[in-house]
Amino acid sequence: MIDTYRHKGMRRKLIEELRAMGISAIDVLDAFDQVPRHFFLDSSFTNQAYSNMAFQIGEGQTISHPYTVAFQTQLLNLNKGQRILEIGTGSGFQTAILCALGARVVSIERQRNLYISAKSKIAQLGYVPNLFFGDGYKGKASYAPYDSILVTCGAPFIPEDLKNQLKVGGRLVIPIGEGDKQIMTRLTKINEEEWKTETFGDFSFVPMLTKTAK
Ligand code: SAH
């Protein structure tokens, strides 16, 4: 991976843009400084890698807009050493951001090719999350409970397994809805029965699919 001063300069500009758009968490902005987004994209996109755009990553999937990644990460409010479950590894960029923040990350991807490519890229950057090929609706009970769970695809409903795998006090950040738009939602587990629900406006994600692909 080649990370030049030019790339670093482009990252700084992106961080200023994210700050202007309302991302204020310093640790999140620092993580964007550390992770080379161009590394997660096809080389033909390198020049646009630090613009606030989504790109195709193969298998009909996209890497989320940097703003969306930053916004979701900020909603998690995470601390170093916390255990985080991510649904939808995709390119692996968001996974790397969580690792850069010092979280212990478990991430699940349903497309085998994306899982393989993300695994190799993240390893080359020196991060050590636990990555799985599988169905995110089921979560990953063997690593539960989680301090936070982050869903990076549009969920038609809130999967019960994810709620069960969250610690009391933990947060589930999930874009809910089918079609073109989802409502960014944060659920906080008050106790085993009670949840606090907050919403943060419309976003657009690829759908969370039910069947595990090849
Ligand atoms: N966090 C990613 C976003 C990728 S888009 C990034 O930064 O690049 C969302 C991803 O969710 C896609 O790769 C898609 O294949 C995956 N996905 C969709 N349904 C899923 C499911 N049920 N379980 C796990 N991953 C799923």
UniProtKB/TrEMBL annotation:
GO biological process terms, semicolon-separated: methylation; protein repair
Keywords: Cytoplasm, Methyltransferase, S-adenosyl-L-methionine, Transferase
GO molecular function, one term: protein-L-isoaspartate (D-aspartate) O-methyltransferase activity
Compartments reported by the entry: Cytoplasm
GO annotation, cellular component aspect: cytoplasm
EC numbers, comma separated: 2.1.1.77
SUPFAM superfamilies found in the cross-reference section: S-adenosyl-L-methionine-dependent methyltransferases
Cross-referenced Pfam families: PCMT (PF01135)
Coiled coil: none
UniProt keyword S-adenosyl-L-methionine present: yes
Enzyme class at the top of the EC tree: transferase
Family stated for the protein in its record: Belongs to the methyltransferase superfamily. L-isoaspartyl/D-aspartyl protein methyltransferase family.
Name under which the protein is recorded: Protein-L-isoaspartate O-methyltransferase
Species whose genome carries this gene: Brumimicrobium salinarum
